[in-house]
Amino acid sequence: MAEKRSAWVYVGIGCAVLLVLGVAVAGLGGFWVFRKAKQLEAELKDPDTRTAKVKQVLGAETLPEGYHAFAAFTVPFVMETAILTDRESNADGMITGFGERGLIYLEMIRMGQDQDELRAFFEGRTSDPTVLRRNNINIDVDEIIGRGVIPTDESTLMYVTQRGSVSAHGVSSDGITSLMLVECPQDKRARVAIWFGPDASPGSGPATAAELTGTPADEAAMREFMGHFRVCG
């Protein structure tokens, strides 16, 4: 089950990311970080604003059924992050964490070496996750379930599905996870999506096809889920 965290954790996460970049911006850095931190705080309290921001980052008209906008933050020209959770807003408009399912989407400036190493990992030419760790994605694999490629009209989606744990940007999950590399034509951004859900039978040997149906390790479910998003747009 995904670790349950307060929404205020993400104010801290967003501020930390903004602070690192803001320090590098002489003079205006402190004001910019402060303004962005206040903006993120306001978004976390307003479901409509939060949902609109997440949809904008994901290029989505609607979110998948059962998923809600948790948080999104953007550092112009550098990175974007959007997070979905299966928990609904409380009476104060906040979301207090995760139940069992969620999505973390990361879009970053693409570096040549990183992109080559990402492709090698997703294609199965290496099992070394160092390139993921360099991008703040940590995995602990119990079982690699499968790898594959899903071509669409606008992108190529490469995926690795696994049993184990994944953590990224303060969100952690134990269960079944699909790590996806989305490649858009003639683009200079690296896009990674992490879709996670519960494991119906942890520790009981290799997962069966029936156990994987409808989970993040089911390619048909992956196509339907990711079909809500137009991240290359």
Structure explained in plain terms:
- There is one protein chain.
- 32% of the residues lie in helices and 31% in strands.
- Mean pLDDT is 79; it is low at 1-28.
- Strands 1-2-3-7-6-5-4 form a 7-stranded antiparallel β-sheet, with helices on both faces.
- Helix 1 (8-23) packs antiparallel against helix 2 (29-45).
- The protein has helices at 8-23, 29-45, 47-58, 112-123, 130-134, 209-212, 219-226; strands at 68-75, 79-85, 102-109, 137-151, 156-168, 171-183, 189-197.
- The chain is globular.
- With 233 residues, it is an alpha+beta fold.
- Strand 1 and strand 2 (79-85) form a beta hairpin.
Present the secondary structure layout:
Elements: H1 8-23, H2 29-45, H3 47-58, E1 68-75, E2 79-85, E3 102-109, H4 112-123, H5 130-134, E4 137-151, E5 156-168, E6 171-183, E7 189-197, H6 209-212, H7 219-226
Antiparallel strand pairs: 1-2, 2-3, 3-7, 4-5, 5-6, 6-7
What's this entry about, in short?
The chain contains seven helices and seven strands. By secondary structure, it is an alpha+beta fold. Strand 4 and strand 5 form a beta hairpin.
